[in-house]
Specification:
Layout: H1 3-48, H2 52-63, H3 70-76, H4 78-88
């Protein structure tokens, strides 16, 4: 390979590298724009379908003062209390 062929090859490699870098920048910008659009559409979808009725229902079931006595809450959580006690004593594998 003589000097002129070598120079030509180096110049071609530089052009290819610059072109590759430009394409990379364009792909990154497109990806960022797509991500912003996805986030915006997700935010508007969440605003439109706000599950307020579920949280209100959960509050009424678990926080209603007429049905949620201390005794009822202890009975509901008895399994978890018992399980925690066994783990502390090393009788239950995690």
């Amino acid at each position: 390979m003589n000097e002129s062929e070598r120079q030509h090859l180096l110049e071609q490699m530089k052009r290819d590298a610059e072109e590759h870098a430009e394409h990379r920048v364009k792909r990154i910008k497109l990806d960022e724009e797509e991500t912003k659009r996805d986030e915006a559409s997700r935010a508007t979808a969440e605003d439109q379908i706000a599950p307020e009725f579920i949280s209100k229902m959960g509050q009424s079931v678990y926080n209603d003062k007429t049905t949620a006595s201390l005794e009822d809450r202890v009975k509901r959580n008895q399994f978890y209390l018992q399980k925690r006690g066994l783990e502390e004593r090393g009788m239950l594998n995690k």
